[in-house]
Amino acid sequence: MDLEGLFAQHLARLAPKDPLVLAVSGGGDSVALAHLVRRAGRKGVVAHLDHALRPESPQDLAFVEALAGRLGFPFFAERVEVGRIAQARGENLEAVAREVRYAFLHRVAKQVGARAILTAHTLDDQAETVLLQLLQGTARAPGIREKEGLVVRPLLPFPREALRAYLRGLGEAWREDPTNQDPSLDRNYLRLMVFPLLLERFPRAKEALARFAQVRAEEEDHLEAEAQVRLLPDPRFFVPAYRALPLLQAPEALRRRALRRVLEALDLRPEARLIALLEEALRGKATTLPGGHLARRKGGTLFLIPPSPRVPLPPGFRRPHPGDHLVLPYGRKRLVDFLAEKGVPKELKPLWPVRAEGGQVVEVYGLFPPPEEERLMGLALEEARAAFAEGEVPVGAVLALGERVYRAHNRVEATQDPTAHAEMLLLRQVGKEARGGRLYVTLEPCRMCHHALREAGVEVVYGAENLKEGALTRFGQGGRLRGGVREGECAKLLRDFFARLREGCRSG
């Protein structure tokens, strides 16, 4: 099958529905894309962004407009001074250009109701990207994805030279960007200096790198899903925060992948040295990341604390003042002591939003008055204490279904039933009505309970991590899980129980 037939088949698989947005710069690859789409009989529009970076860029725009007219495609164009934007932001020019370009393409797609945005990345681009990613130390090198959201790259299987030969056969011209000959740019250096040497020794080097990217892309989704379940956000805090133990207990490869996601969420490149800094923070050594975020573990939570000017302050709230206090049923408590009890790290205490009347704090954002989940975990703690008194492992659970609340605690010893965990007893009691409920349990569920709860459609909020058999902490089984609510009290009850058990063994 010839190039046009192969392309049409490939495009039909990736983007079966019209209209399409064709990103056309005027270079050979994008001009070939426009011709191939036209020969495939597909409908779409041509979109061109003038980055205003070169004196000849208006001629590029005029060339692409004329090309669109000849091929019968509607034409959309925009001019943006990318250099000025990058300078004003103090950001990398290439990154800003990419951001602006894709924002423009998505605006055009929305305007015309496009089903896909086609870009002209080729097999050569894929090989260059993989090698560049490896040399930059990302340790991932996934290359260029064939499809990301609306963006589709149907030329990835085709080498640049084959596309140039196709255009020459059509008698079609294209524009050359003189900056592509500047070896001071990393990608150009690889293209102009490195790949010619590689191809002398390894003639199929580009194809090999592209195959590597394809395999990595196929593995990526599975590994990302496995890493994601280890990344358990802690929503009690209004800054980025994650449960620490699921990350620490994860296999090293999954932990580092999850930490890359943390860095990407902070708009940081996931370099190996930054991943190492986050691993140090997980183990207790506070560290500051580029951009000013402080990575610090406090109790069971890894915090990413932004620089103070960037910490949000909701309307009606202020920062804490010296002498601020709360009035609780058992008396006054200093605000700083209250925040310490809630696991708030020292760097975050002076930034925590509060509402106050004079020095008396009437609301601590997200923490006081206590949210409903703390009250329900308190009921679960009552059940756990009852289990303690009966000689059972002190785990208590509460299942909330609207206004109805069901309670249970472990009864393994009493029933001589190894499945008589608090969670399982509640599911047996409530049955199918449990679907859509929320379960509060003092200890992270084991795999048995977690599987049953997931099958029953129950969301789980737990107190302390289960280091021995926790479904998430030990085995990475995801689902609707949240942890850390009244963690200190839940963990202390377990410690006291096993300390008593050990003491009994010694005295016996």
List the helices and strands and how they pair.
Blueprint: H1 3-14, E1 20-23, H2 28-39, E2 44-50, H3 57-71, E3 75-79, H4 82-89, H5 93-112, E4 116-118, H6 123-136, E5 147-148, E6 151-152, H7 160-170, H8 186-201, H9 205-228, E7 241-243, H10 245-248, H11 252-265, H12 272-282, E8 287-288, E9 294-298, E10 301-305, E11 325-328, E12 331-334, H13 335-341, E13 354-357, E14 360-364, H14 372-389, E15 396-401, E16 404-409, H15 412-415, H16 422-430, E17 438-443, H17 447-456, E18 459-464, E19 481-482, H18 487-507
Parallel strand pairs: 1-2, 1-4, 2-3, 4-6, 17-18, 18-19
Antiparallel strand pairs: 5-6, 7-10, 8-9, 9-10, 11-12, 13-14, 15-16, 15-17
Q: Mind explaining what this structure looks like?
A:
With 508 residues, the protein is α/β, with parallel strands linked by helices. It is 45% helix and 16% strand. It is built from 18 helices and 19 strands. Helix 2 crosses helix 7 (160-170), helix 6 crosses helix 8 and helix 9 packs across helix 11. It starts with a helix and ends with a helix.
The geometry reads as elongated
**Spatial strand order of the main sheet:** 3-2-1-4-6-5
Please report the total strand number as a whole number: 19
Uncertain runs are: none
Structure class: alpha/beta
Number of helices: 18
* Spatial separation of the terminal alpha carbons: 83 Å
Main beta-sheet strand count, sense and barrel state: 6 strands, mixed
Radius of gyration from CA coordinates: 29 Å
- Share of β-strand residues: 15-25%
* Overall residue-averaged pLDDT value: 91
Secondary structure: helix percent: 40-55%
